[in-house]
Specification:
The chain is an alpha/beta fold and about 300 residues long. It folds into two domains: about 260 residues, Rossmann fold (3-Layer(aba) Sandwich), CATH 3.40.50; about 35 residues, no CATH class. It contains 13 helices and ten strands. Strands 6-7-8-3-9-10 form a six-stranded mixed beta sheet, sandwiched between helices. Helix 5 runs antiparallel to helix 6 and helix 7 runs antiparallel to helix 8. The radius of gyration is 20 Å and the shape is globular.
């Protein structure tokens, strides 16, 4: 599907699909992510030190830093996958490591490498986004024994529970799945196996899964690694459209040029925060040289 077709599909559904801004339950003025003096290390090695930052609803933020600067660790702290050694991390107003409202989060991993071996179709990937919305209230009394069965045979029980939930997707759920596919321009690939897609197409499929889950926050960890240049441009166009629709975008990115062109705000990290502010101010600051070295301005395409 061409980028023009993608734009048309997105425009046609702008009024049909609730934006993240209308879905969000975060109280007015409450940051989506709030870190206060956060520190974390592996054994005796500090990885993140004294990091404080807040991400407000609807922002488009890029976190940049050299290899080994702690970007991925910081992302895990933000999402509650790691607990800080010191300081505080909150997600949608709750302690990040205790946050359990997973439907509000959409995560796109680097490479989407796990998807390369999954013998499932694009539509099957996207419908996974609906699973958190299909609770046990839609299951029969017999299916409510899942909790007990989990203790005896967790792998088989999870498989059967997923099949049970999938079989109970309502018409509304399937409509949301189809809408998400159309929004990212992947309707024509819905029945194609995920293994048959290019890197850029796989990433779009995983964004569609997040959209199907009606996520308020989309977190992407270096999502364009290994994706061809033409697909990268279309990918960032899509992120811009989603952000304009109200979804908060947090991008962990190695491509400084893309960050300068796409993000509204930059957090420059090398164990500690070297810069946090508007992109144009980042370009004119000395944070690039201090965090990356003297040649970083050329890498960002701002050597002037």
């Amino acid at each position: 599907m061409s980028s023009q077709d993608t734009d048309s599909a997105t425009a046609e559904r702008t009024d049909e699909r609730p934006t993240a801004a209308t879905n969000a339950e975060t109280p007015t003025g409450e940051p989506v992510i709030d870190l206060r003096d956060v520190a974390f290390g592996y054994t005796a090695t500090p990885v993140v030190e004294g990091v404080s930052l807040a991400v407000d609803p609807g922002e488009y933020i890029a976190v940049v830093g050299p290899n080994g600067s702690g970007k991925s660790t910081l992302m895990q702290l933000m999402l509650g996958l790691l607990e800080p050694d010191a300081g505080r991390a909150r997600l949608f107003g709750e302690r990040a490591d205790r946050f359990d409202d997973g439907e509000r989060l959409g995560y796109v991993a680097q490479h989407a490498s796990a998807a390369k071996e999954m013998p499932i179709t694009v539509r099957e990937v996207v419908k996974m986004g609906r699973y958190p919305h299909v609770g046990f209230d839609r299951l029969s009394a017999d299916d409510r024994t899942v909790a007990a069965a989990l203790r005896e045979d967790p792998v088989e029980t999870v498989r059967r529970a997923a099949n049970a939930v999938s079989g109970r997707l309502a018409a509304e759920d399937w409509a949301i799945v189809d809408d998400a596919l159309a929004t990212v321009g992947m309707s024509a690939f819905a029945d194609r196996r995920i293994t048959q897609l290019s890197g850029g197409q796989r990433q779009r499929a995983f964004i569609a899964r997040a959209l199907a889950g009606e996520a308020d926050l989309l977190v992407l960890d270096e999502p364009t690694v290994g994706v061809d240049a033409e697909s990268v441009e279309a990918f960032y166009d899509l992120l811009g459209e989603l952000n304009a629709g109200g979804i908060t975008v947090l991008l962990i990115e190695h491509d400084l040029g893309a960050v300068v062109e796409q993000a509204d705000r930059v957090v420059c990290l090398n164990r500690e925060v070297y810069f946090d502010g508007p992109t144009d101010e980042f370009v004119d600051s000395d944070a690039l040289a201090r965090a990356f070295g003297a040649g970083a301005r050329s890498l960002a395409g701002v050597d002037r």
